[in-house]
Amino acid sequence: QICLSLVKLLFYLAHSPLGSIVLLDFQPRQFVMVDGNLKVTDMDDASTEELSCKEDNDCTLDFPTKSFPLKCSAVGKCEGINEKKNLFNAYRYFFTYLLPHSAPPALRPFLSDILNATGDLRYGVNETLKAFEKVLHLYKSGLYLQKRPLLLKDYITLKGFRRVEGEDYKCWPSYSHLGCLLSVYSAEEAAAICNSQAQCQSFIITQRRTWTGRPLASFQSSLTDLIPDANAVVYIKRSASSGKRL
């Protein structure tokens, strides 16, 4: 969410009515999240000036660990230098820390492509935004889910109950520090996640949703402490329920 919102902001800066705007003091502290969108808190160090040049050798974009040769345009300006500077700063301050983590395994190669392409400045901001929107579409639509055996048939459905909230086993990247609360596309995906975790004996699809509209599933290691809830459904592993009274 943070990286996508940042790229949308950089897309606007690259195509603003004033021209391509560069953020000269590009630091994480200069941004804040407002209603799920990243905003710049200080525009004092923004500029529309692009580096003047006479030849391509005048257009090297330097960073502490990398340098990029750019082209000198016919009008004597380094082509796209403001856009590329913003994008590489987004890569080194945000993408490298956020993109490698938390995504479903099937989506990680797409995010690695974005990371590598922006780190080498092979993508401009237009291509980067398109790549992020593709990943978002795959994530929201569930199209990233590979064909796999149906696992939900191995679970007993207990309607009208939920488990008392409390501490349970932890997992990454959980939305709760008390237990294992993950975003899922469907109950079938939740069953696959539960099967992959040795501690998991049951799960509940909660009424809570993420910014993409996906529900949160709570995974549990215990079958105890069930309480009535007309809107809830508990999915219990058949292997866990065998020999036990529900």
Features:
Transferase(Phosphotransferase), domain 1, two-stranded antiparallel ribbon, about 30% helix, five-stranded antiparallel β-sheet, 11 strands, about 25% strand, 6 helices, about 250 residues, alpha+beta, elongated
Structure, explained:
The protein is an alpha+beta fold. The chain has two domains: 1-144, Transferase(Phosphotransferase), domain 1; 152-242, Hepatocyte Growth Factor (3-Layer(bba) Sandwich). It is built from six helices and eleven strands. The protein has helices at residues 2-14, 81-98, 108-119, 125-141, 187-196, 238-241, and strands at residues 22-23, 31-34, 37-40, 46-47, 60-62, 67-69, 155-163, 180-183, 202-209, 215-220, 226-237. Strands 7-11-9-10-8 form a five-stranded antiparallel sheet. The protein has a two-stranded antiparallel sheet with strand order 1-4. It has a two-stranded antiparallel ribbon with strand order 2-3. A hairpin with a 2-residue loop joins strand 2 and strand 3 (37-40). Helix 1 (2-14) packs antiparallel against helix 2, helix 1 (2-14) packs antiparallel against helix 4 and helix 3 runs antiparallel to helix 4 (125-141). The chain is elongated. One of its GO terms (cellular component) is extracellular region. InterPro entries: FAM69_kinase_dom, PKDCC. Residues 1-19 form the signal peptide.
